[in-house]
Amino acid sequence: MTTYALFLGCTIPARQPHYELSARKALTKLGIELVDLENMTCCAPPPLQSIDLETSLAIAAYNICLAEEADLNIVTLCTGCFESLAMTNTLLKEKEELRERVNKILSNVGKEFKGNKEVRHYLQVLTKDIGVDRLKRSVVKPLNKLKVASFSGCHLLRPSALLRFDDPERPRIFDTLIEALGAKSIWYRNKLRCCGGLLRGYADDVALAIARDKIVNATDAGVDCISTLCPFCFLTLDLGQMLIKSSYKEEYNMPIVHYAELLSLSLGVEPKELALDFHKIKIDKVLEKLG
Amino acid sequence: MTAKRGSSKRSKGKVKALEEAKIGVFLSDCGGQLSKILDFEALANFAKTVQGVALVARGSEFWRGQGLKTIVDAVKNKKVNRVVVAESVPKISEIAIAKAVEEAGLNSNLLEVLDLKDHCAWPHRDAPKEATEKAKAMLLAAIERAKLSEPIGKLEFPAVKSVLVIGGGIAGMQAAEDLADIGFEVYLVEKEPFLGGLAARAVRFFPTDDCAICIQSPASDLKTVTHTSRKCVYRSGFSEIPNLNVLTNSKIVKVEGVPGNYKVTVEKKPRYVNEKKCVGCNLCTTVCPVEVPDEYNAELKTRKAIYINTPLVYPPVYAIDAKACKFTECAKCVKVCPTNAIELNQKTEHITLNVGSIIVATGFREYDPSVIKEYHYGEYPDVITHLELARMLDAFGPTNGMIVRPSDRKPAKRIVFVQCVGSRDRRWNPYCSSICCMISLKHATLIKSAYPDADVTICYIDIRTTGREHEYYYEKAREMGIKFVKGRPTEILHDPATNTLVVDVEDELLRKFLELEADLVVLASAMVPAEDAKELAQILGLELDQDGFFKEYNAKLRPTETKHRGIFLCGGATFPKDAPTTSLHAHSAAVKAAKFLTNGKIIKDQKTAVVNEDYCGDCEFCPVTCPYGAISLVQKDKEHFVAKVDDLLCEGCGVCVGTCPVGAIELRHLKPSQISAQMKALLSVNGTSKPLILAISCSECGHAAIDSSGMAMMQYPANVRVLKVPCTGIVQVQQILEAFKAGAQGVMVVGCKPDGCHYEVGSQKTKVKVELAKKLLKECGIEPERLEMFNLVYIEGDKFAEAARTMTERVEKLGTLQLA
Amino acid sequence: MMAQEKTSATDFAKEITSRLGGETITYCYQCGTCASSCPVAKTTERYNPRQIIRLALLGLRQDVISGDAIWLCASCYNCQERCPQKVEIADVIYALRNIAIREGNIPNIYAEFAAGMTSEGRIVPISKFLEKKRGDYGLPPLKPAGVDAAKKILSATGFDKIMFKKGESQ
């Protein structure tokens, strides 16, 4: 039984229980045990890094220490959490001076970063612990006719010097995992470009323009849905379409579906168990294409 | 190594009995200039009191004229067997005196010349009495050193008048030709079947846009100036140049030996075509059934397994691609060849060459930009590099001079150049490749000349046109309507619907984002070292710089030399360069490679290190330390190895001496006993109001700095006494302690800058030793501030004077050192 | 033209390079790759990462830290991936924001994040309502956050002493 400490972050419990639900169900079905540790905090994503980088490193390191003490590797759902924790993990493992600096701060809470655990995104659990072949064999309802625009978001891949998840210019892992479910991953313009999500709250008009661009490109490619990994991307593209409707007077009705949801569905979980009402854009088109 | 340590029995001092010294002391007052400051009568009288001095003479100059005759007579009449001369500007005067005494029958190592002008009178002219006292000490030191000197003979080594040139591009060809003309036997080794390197593919060179293979070799009667006609490779009958042996399909596998006498093993792969029989009729290619992509022509066309690159190539002999050919299974070409030139049973040969020097001319190659994934090279066929474009521009090339899109062979009308691809890029090659701006301008202007309606844009970060006429070339480009966008593209996109490339770039000057549509995108890819540079560097024992290029010994003074005296570099192998610079470099390397071989022998003073085999414990420190690889371990008996010095490679620096933990190695020209004797002598006479300071100085930058301070009459106190050694690396920690014991109140060590030591490593090693010595001094209750190292260059004479003054003040403040 | 306090280019560069994230700013040779890689720069003229770095290296400190531009980076890191001089552009922007906030230039939204962090150890508070509903969806109850630990860390780094004034920039 492979066990991980599940790191939920803030946005998923706060706004996207459907992501957490589908991820827990899918991973459990595949034989992964998820442990919820106490005392975790925010992962210290870009908004916190913008305020103070040193604090962010310390907060992220603190969370990693909790996993080290429990002797568990961390798995995240949100790619923002992945970026913050994995980047911190690698930086502190490789830069002695930085590690000493952070450990000095952590001593105030009785913790010490040792660097003996990994931070993984759940896609890495699928590729490394389960393997694409076993995943394929576990699929009971293949998504055979589904055309998916894969959108991993920025922070699964970049900064690649620290995250080392996949080739940042030619990523293949996410697309391979989508196709393992029987669906087809379709190329669309500016596939790897940001959704603009982090600008929301400061420059909503710019954020919306960038999000709209993604919806338009996916629509032009003729896909059935956009599959996301990041809760921010989800909000920006899903809720975003409501804002596009009011600002641009355009309706695209492009379903936005987390990969964990596609995974759960293809593993046989019933749609009604997945709290799908959290989708602003209904995903009936996707459900119809279940095998 | 499990060999036993050498015997620890030490013989006390004397190695063998020296003849009794009869020293002649000759004091020059420089036409009366020095005697205004120094009391020469006192000096002469002092000299007379020193034991072993047989003769003291005064004069106004001793390095020529009557003065020199006095010395020569004294030698001839056997009045003296050692000569000590106080003369100015020893770097000139010593040579003249040494020549004269040798001719008179006295070995020149038995001569000591000291400089009372720049090292005494002039820097201490404000304190003449003290200067005189210092002069006494200096004189005494020279005398004591001379007493212990022994004759050093000259050695002869073979110098084979033959040169190996590795690399048959334009650099190698030019150097090879120069040397063949001078009369040396030259072996030009090229790994490809044909000569010409990059130039042959590039076709035209900027800024003249004429033939790249032009190397202007004189033909026919080489001795007659009137007959010298300047012909290019094609017209020169390169194969008929006497003494020039061209070995193609060949590479170097082993090199052994020393400068003047190298043994080189060359592996020559078979061409399968007899060079003497092939007439280049081309019949073989018409019957060959195998077709492969033509790599030489950027795979824009195919070629057969038997092929020639272009009609203009040298040697004009076909070659068989062993990977593609079906050999005896087919052999159609054999049947058809009218001169029976094809020999499918040719084998790889190993050829041994005996050469006196080696020139590395392996050039550079174009970087493969596939790793820069955002530019999609290798993925989009219409994204190409300069070399590939050059093949298209070649009228003899795969597209007959037409610029086409590789994807559909349609003419390319909109062409975008991208500069600095893989250059000036910390991710790939951080340096600037130097010639790509000019290459892009060349290609852009050639295209615009042929197709005035073509839409040509160059995206750049900077335009670098630094050579002669290069700026006019840039002007011409602008006049022709070529567009320049200041901005580095982030990505090259492809629109499958229209099969158009789109270059995504910010025009910084317009402050607008552009999406440039292109039929063809040309990447100015970086110029990187030859593929086998690393392997060759290992075989030759050469260093590569941080970018993988061969490192020249000193970029400003010795641009074609390496730390091995018999191996030279030229052309793109050291850094990308254009044709004129390559020429300069190649001709320069030819001269250097020939210079030391012209007499057929190398004559060298045996001013080298020598090992006392009884003491040597084969600890391996010295072979590892020697920067010239001059020391090796040889088996003495069953269990015992000892160090052995190669007299030809040894540079006589003494770094080994400073490294040996048991004193088993010493320099013939400066023995430890001589260092001690000089030290004691310099510190035996004070006569100043200040504490004595010993300054151990290397004879390179360190001594040059001291010279220059004196020449400029910069004043420093006369209590500073200079002991000259070849390299500060010779200094052992215990010698520093010995100096204090001998009466020094302070010790200065003066050497070259750490990254500029003339003996590579000495200065850096000494720095470590000085730090260690400071620790030991502290342990002994001596203030470590009494010891200091100074790293200076010749033009820093002022810094030496300042250092001398500072040390004196410091030591005065610390008070007199009382040693038990 | 507003009168500005002049900062020497060397001083501002030193200020930036001595901060976490800002170490590589001086590598920049203004090639413009970052600008054309940037989704925000392609969408609005308010933002151009190359320009921000240029202003900073010219010492125009006030323009940079009281300006609107530095808040428009979406942290997508595309610039940092493509930069041929390995300038850590996105991290430099963080460093500039860190400086700006310490001088009282903080957009409202960030002040809210800071407040959330200081009080609950989360930048986005989780509503009690939603927390209760978790059971309805079949989700296990949320484990308590390490608020005390977070507060101690914020105190140790001096985060809690930064004055989060709602600043001039909107």
Task: Explain what you see.
The complex is a heterotrimer of chains A (291), B (820) and C (170). Helix content of chain A is 49%, strand content 11%. Chain A has 291 residues and is an alpha/beta fold. Chain B folds into six domains: 19-152, Rossmann fold; 162-268 and 533-595, FAD/NAD(P)-binding domain, CATH 3.50.50; 283-347, no CATH class; 364-529, FAD/NAD(P)-binding domain (3-Layer(bba) Sandwich), CATH 3.50.50.60; 606-667, Alpha-Beta Plaits (2-Layer Sandwich), CATH 3.30.70.3270; 689-814, Lumazine/riboflavin synthase (Rossmann fold, 3-Layer(aba) Sandwich). The two termini of chain B are 42 Å apart. A five-stranded parallel β-sheet of chain B has the order 12-7-6-20-31, covered by helices on one side. A five-stranded parallel β-sheet of chain B has the order 22-29-23-24-25. Chain B has a four-stranded parallel β-sheet with strand order 2-1-3-4, sandwiched between helices. In chain B, 28% of the residues lie in helices and 23% in strands. Helices cover 51% and strands 0% of the residues of chain C. Chain C has helices at residues 9-17, 33-37, 39-43, 49-57, 61-65, 78-82, 89-102, 108-120, 128-137, 147-157. Chain C starts with 8 loop residues before the first helix and ends in a 13-residue tail after the last helix. The radius of gyration of chain C is 19 Å and the shape is globular. With 170 residues, chain C is an all-alpha fold. Chain C contains ten helices and no strands.
Briefly characterize the structure.
The complex is a heterotrimer of chains A (291), B (820) and C (170). With 820 residues, chain B is of the alpha/beta class. Helix content of chain B is 28%, strand content 23%.
Question: Helix and strand layout, with pairings?
Answer:
The complex is a heterotrimer of chains A (291), B (820) and C (170).
Chain A: E1 2-7, H1 11-15, H2 17-29, E2 32-35, H3 46-51, H4 53-69, E3 73-76, H5 79-94, H6 96-106, E4 119-121, H7 122-130, H8 132-138, E5 147-151, H9 160-163, H10 173-180, E6 184-185, H11 204-220, E7 225-228, H12 231-248, E8 256-258, H13 259-266, H14 284-288
Parallel strand pairs in A: 1-2, 1-3, 3-4, 5-6, 5-7, 7-8
Helix pairs in contact in A: 2-13, 4-5, 4-6, 5-6, 11-12
Chain B: E1 23-28, H1 40-49, E2 53-59, H2 65-76, E3 82-86, H3 90-104, E4 111-114, H4 117-121, H5 128-147, E5 154-158, E6 162-166, H6 170-182, E7 185-189, H7 197-202, E8 204-205, E9 210-211, E10 217-218, E11 230-231, H8 233-236, E12 244-247, E13 250-258, E14 261-268, H9 283-287, E15 291-293, E16 302-304, E17 306-307, E18 319-320, H10 332-336, E19 349-355, E20 357-360, E21 364-366, E22 383-385, H11 386-393, E23 414-421, H12 436-450, E24 455-460, H13 470-479, E25 483-486, E26 491-495, E27 500-507, E28 512-518, E29 520-525, E30 527-529, H14 533-540, E31 567-569, H15 579-595, E32 601-605, E33 609-611, H16 621-625, E34 631-635, E35 641-645, H17 655-659, E36 665-667, H18 672-682, E37 693-698, H19 701-711, E38 720-725, H20 733-741, E39 746-751, H21 762-779, E40 787-791, H22 797-814
Parallel strand pairs in B: 1-2, 1-3, 3-4, 6-7, 6-20, 7-12, 20-31, 22-29, 23-24, 23-29, 24-25, 37-38, 37-39, 39-40
Antiparallel strand pairs in B: 5-32, 8-9, 10-11, 13-14, 14-19, 15-16, 17-18, 21-30, 26-27, 27-28, 33-36, 34-35
Chain C: H1 9-17, H2 33-37, H3 39-43, H4 49-57, H5 61-65, H6 78-82, H7 89-102, H8 108-120, H9 128-137, H10 147-157
